[in-house]
Sequence to fold (302 residues):
Amino acid sequence: MDQPDVLVTGATGFVGRRLVRKLVDDGVGVRAMTRRPERYQGPGTAVAGDVGDPDSLAAAVRGVDVAVYLVHSLDHDDFEERDAQAARNFARAAAEAGVRQIVYLGGLGADGEHLSPHLRSRREVEGLLGSTGVPVTTLRAAIVVGHGGISWELTRQLVKNLPAMVVPRWTSTRTQPIALDDVVRYLAGVIGQEEAFGATYEIGGPEVLTYLDMLRIASEEAAVKPVPIIRVPVLTPRLSSYWLALVTDVDVVTGRNLIESMGTEVVVTDTRIRDVVPGEPLPYAEAVRRALAERLAEGRDI
Fold:
């Protein structure tokens, strides 16, 4: 498929707005779906659409070849039900419009393991998006490191604001963070690639790190005073979320939903994505430097 017309949902979000910019720069025709197109100021053509409102989707998907699905409801207590219904709505609209491919950014985590509600929901959405017959290309990622991302903001604010860090056991869990630039590169790279239709790929950076490793590296790159680490044996997700709400601007519900996933090891075990989209992913330290540089470029302090 050459230069497909692409619809990007979540076009004003953390990943979506970067992806839209890259696709437009690459000469792709892009529809940027948003609930408030009159306020949209980014590249591409703004179109109205809300995955929670099935009647709003028909016009948005009409005539597009590929739809990129980048929406979630992590800031709601009932996010699993919301995300499932939204995926059903979108899958139905995509099938009726003759969309040839849906590209979805999901979450890492081995099938068959006990997954957190967040990761379980991501996996459910994968299946629901393909339930009406449109081939789905899924990219499963762990933490995405980039300016404006919730997980990165937690890291940045913790190393900046805390004189000492009381950490639970889940901070020793291994994960494989990935730079925002690489996520966008992989998403753009699978769009319209027929070999990727119906395939699931794992994406990650070159290093497997613990959350403690990530905090230490971020502290070094931000040139802030090293944060003393104090381990405690038990700190529940609910207590952890209240703790995060005290020292960061991430709300309690989102924080709890993220933390519940941090006890699950999420490491890449399959590197087939590099056969489809060649290139070496950025190291974590470089991803941190780019996130900090983008923040400084906006005139904000670290």
